[in-house]
Amino acid sequence: MTVRSKGLVERANGYLETSFLPGRLFTGPDDFNAQLTAWLQIANRRHHRVIDARPVDRWESDRASMLAIPPVGPPHWWPLRTRLGRDHYIRVDTNDYSVHPRAIGHVVTVHADTEEITVICGNDLVARHTRCWAKHQSLTDPEHAEAARNLRGEVIHQQAARAATAKAAALAPDSLGIEVEQRELGTYDRMFTLIEGGGGKEDT
Fold first, then answer.
1. Cα(first)–Cα(last) distance of the chain, in Å?
2. Rounded CA gap, 86 and 98, in Å?
3. I need a labelling partner for 198 at 20 to 30 A (CA). Which of 89, 147, 180, 186 fits?
4. CA distances (Å), 77 to each of 74, 89, 94, 111, 199, in order?
5. Mind listing the pLDDT tens digit for each residue in 89-138?
């Protein structure tokens, strides 16, 4: 793009920012395009000083000078590859979307278009969300939240079991350096008068 054409594009964008956007609210790309189309029906019939004509009168000549559309359209999504963190969320623009926690620690591929966000781990679909056009939102799939709760419960149980095992091992006599006296088995037989010499007369 040349500097001259870049300036033309920027002036057109500036015109939209100052004449079309102020005071408008949009629910999504479709609503934006619908409002813009209706507004252009009015704007394109105004006489523009720069081109000394109405844009609607120049449309056919501009269309005739355009190049043909390629036979294969460009992809309508952009891919992102990232390793899923322990919080099992991925960020697209300013919004966070939940991913099934079974993908934690794995590299996932995020596909985003104007309608949908999908996340692939290997050949496994681990997230599908409707694209959110609000800002700074967190979108959580209930299935992902339930799986995360179950996973946290398993981790807590495993940690408690390991802690109990370690505590029992720490309190064992051997680990404390305590020597426990060990008598012959016959001593206990004599103590309980099972053999001759019992009745409290066992050897010490």
1. 104
2. 11
3. 180
4. 9, 19, 17, 6, 91
5. 999 989 999 999 999 999 999 999 888 999 999 999 999 999 998 889 99
